[in-house]
Amino acid sequence: MNNYFSIQDIDSLPDWVDEAIKIKKDPLSGKNLGRDKTIGLLFFNPSLRTRLSTQKAALNLGMNVIVMNFTGEGWSLEYGDGIVMNQGNSEHIKEAAQVVSQYCDVLGIRAFAKLENREDDYNEKVLKSFIKHSTIPVINMESATGHPLQALTDAITITENQKNKKPKVVLSWAPHPKALPQAVANSFVEMMQHMDANFVITHPVGFELASHITKQVPIDYNQKNALKDADFVYIKNWSSYQDYGKTLDNDLSWKMTQEKMELTNEAKFMHCLPVRRNVVVDDAVIDSKNSLVIEQANNRTYAAQLVLTKILEKS
Amino acid sequence: MNNYFSIQDIDSLPDWVDEAIKIKKDPLSGKNLGRDKTIGLLFFNPSLRTRLSTQKAALNLGMNVIVMNFTGEGWSLEYGDGIVMNQGNSEHIKEAAQVVSQYCDVLGIRAFAKLENREDDYNEKVLKSFIKHSTIPVINMESATGHPLQALTDAITITENQKNKKPKVVLSWAPHPKALPQAVANSFVEMMQHMDANFVITHPVGFELASHITKQVPIDYNQKNALKDADFVYIKNWSSYQDYGKTLDNDLSWKMTQEKMELTNEAKFMHCLPVRRNVVVDDAVIDSKNSLVIEQANNRTYAAQLVLTKILEKS
Amino acid sequence: MNNYFSIQDIDSLPDWVDEAIKIKKDPLSGKNLGRDKTIGLLFFNPSLRTRLSTQKAALNLGMNVIVMNFTGEGWSLEYGDGIVMNQGNSEHIKEAAQVVSQYCDVLGIRAFAKLENREDDYNEKVLKSFIKHSTIPVINMESATGHPLQALTDAITITENQKNKKPKVVLSWAPHPKALPQAVANSFVEMMQHMDANFVITHPVGFELASHITKQVPIDYNQKNALKDADFVYIKNWSSYQDYGKTLDNDLSWKMTQEKMELTNEAKFMHCLPVRRNVVVDDAVIDSKNSLVIEQANNRTYAAQLVLTKILEKS
């Protein structure tokens, strides 16, 4: 594998999920695979789970880890071709990516959506520029429009917890005080189209995700109706794709409650974290025995470790 | 040992001090103890000695180290139970602590007093919340009201340098341009009550530490009188406990001078660092042959390494 | 070797360059040399190449690495002797340097020129104070007036790429939107005086570097004339030494263009990076087959690894 940019880079999802679950049972079994290899983790945004779990995964493989908060610790990057660089940016991505490639064997990069201009975000300027100019494999640690390590984690977690062969999975929009990117929702929607699941998205009118991502997935604007008989309920806020980056009417009635969970088939509750308690979801739901959020975070390590294993085995 | 939250977690001080001194003589003797174990160091405040010495201690034990400046690199934490999280905080301590526990084997946490509300600080919200919700041992790297790694260091340093069986130890308040927490003074006072020492505190009226900490320790408002025949003089500024967080009258005459040191029994001079030269203490004193401040900082490594050894041996 | 403060610390440049090229061929050959040794990298300024390549060099030697952004993560340092520290600085360099020396075996320090006061910068307060008070070897990771790791890199790169025994090397000033330090230019000028090269400096009137550094090196105010028959063209902006820290007339006509490169003997193009494209140098030049900038950055690892090897072999 060259890069892990999106879930399109997964050649066989069932095999990957199986392998990740094997790694989880014996996390140090690949301890020699990464010996004398170095991963560079470049953060343009805050991170807790991704920051720590990716480090942990690399350490489990015996790799060296170099972490860099690019904003502040390095130079402000220019991405434009042919630009006269007489403004704020000190270094061009062409040099930065090539240079970093010489010190590391694998790169992880986090660069969120700015939510200012849809085309800019959906062009994935930062990640795609690093991939274009790097000479080593690049891992997406959440980009403007996708979070494929989270989606792989979610596939692992659903597989571990499903009771029937074709579970009903519901992705439900939730209210949030701030405008958030669509990245987690996008990758989850893409992932569910590769799993054997009865998958439904529910959100208020105006919060439709990009149609090139949702494709044929049914959308139900009635949350309660969508939740009926669900086996997994995945809650996530995202800002509008149409009225890009806007929160529109932040309808608090979409919060996940215990009452709504009772419409489901004793569904497991999922969220990528961090989560705003009692805005996105009630304490009673996230603290219930059906909440998988902590186990999801745990599985982040094994998703990252699987991706690193694939990359190291090929290099 | 589960946690190292305060010096109450030391089961036998003489044994601990002996063991730390043994570690100091052969710092790599436990090199295999921490193999494939990871310590996560979470900083909510600046740190030089604690940051580096705790890393060094972990490396001496063969551990992996992950350092995170929580403020800025992660998400702003909410600690309140049942709160509707529609304000500035993005993540609840319940998730953060459980999640981090899955990536690490031990956690170190630094979270200073805010000096705004005494009850808030003395409730030790941050440290106690991490301890409550973590599933792995937690080490206090200076909390709102205590700095037990520093106090253990001080016990080691005094033991190494004492000439008589029951030395006279004086903790003397010093002036300072900024309001500082009571953490170092508190832990030192607690520690001295467990050592075989003739211990006296001296400070201006109004700077009394919490009575549940000072207990029966004699307080002398006359600095010169207190210093007479001292074997160890520990200088430290702290802000008022009564008029919480205030510096009151910042009496510069309390600075430690060579003239005052001459009242002592050739006392050793101690300070936890960083120190404001010529405000807290004169150059002549800190630069004298009786100054132990650099050796104290050195012993920080062995105090941390002892605590980690205790935790690793038990896990 | 005790310290690597300037290129004066190189005892035999040809031997050093040979050794660095050997290390480059087998970077892990010294993997045991740094076992159980720790390097502390202290940054007072941003860094990409130096940050990553020095870590990589240390990892290649099997060292532990502790990175600290001193500004923000630690305490603000005071450097003055006898100062009453009642202002903004919390810790004196005397303590900081001695303390850090106890946790590490080697220190790397980056502290740029402030460009406010020439005497302050050229006194090298930060680096020299750390060297004075540290008890372990100190490596200059770019100080106020020199960047000797870059200059060593440049010597390696020129040696690798020279076609004739005594190449013509031209250091040419370039325009830049911000005032930059003289550090890279200074160390390059010093280095060239130790190499068997026909070396010329070219810059507009008013941008003369310090005469104690340029010594007898010829200066040509006519850029095109200087470039004739050059084998290596090193481009770099620096602010004025005379009118200290000023950019004077930022003459855009000094930008390096393909047209100017055609005056040379198919010269190799060099720059330390980061570089402002189309201000300092045209895309056509930096993207040409004669551009060495990426290889220069690569050689940063081996320059640092050589310096560390010298230090470890002696300790």
Can you walk through the features of this model?
The structure is a homotrimer of 315-residue chains. By secondary structure, chain A is of the alpha/beta class. The first copy, chain A, has two domains: 7-146 and 299-314, 3-Layer(aba) Sandwich (Rossmann fold), CATH 3.40.50; 150-296, Aspartate/ornithine carbamoyltransferase (Rossmann fold, 3-Layer(aba) Sandwich), CATH 3.40.50. Helix content of chain A is 37%, strand content 14%. Chain A is built from 13 helices and eleven strands. Chain A has helices at 13-25, 49-60, 70-73, 93-103, 118-122, 125-133, 148-161, 183-192, 211-214, 223-227, 258-261, 283-286, 293-314, and strands at residues 38-43, 64-69, 77-78, 91-92, 106-110, 138-140, 168-173, 198-202, 219-220, 232-236, 268-270. In chain A, the strands form three sheets. Chain A has a five-stranded parallel beta sheet with strand order 9-8-7-10-11. In chain A, strands 2-1-5-6 form a four-stranded parallel beta sheet, with helices on both faces. In chain A, helix 9 links the parallel strand 8 and strand 9 (219-220). The longest helix of chain A has 22 residues, at 293-314. Chain A is globular, with a radius of gyration of 20 Å. The termini of chain A are close together. In chain A, 56% of the residues are buried. The model of chain A has no long low-confidence stretch (mean pLDDT 97). The A-B interface holds A 28, 31, 43, 46-49, 51-53, 55-56, 59, 69, 177, 273-279, 283, 287, 293-294, 297-298, 301 and B 36, 38, 40, 64, 66, 68, 72-75, 78, 82-87, 90-92, 94-96, 98-100, 102-104.
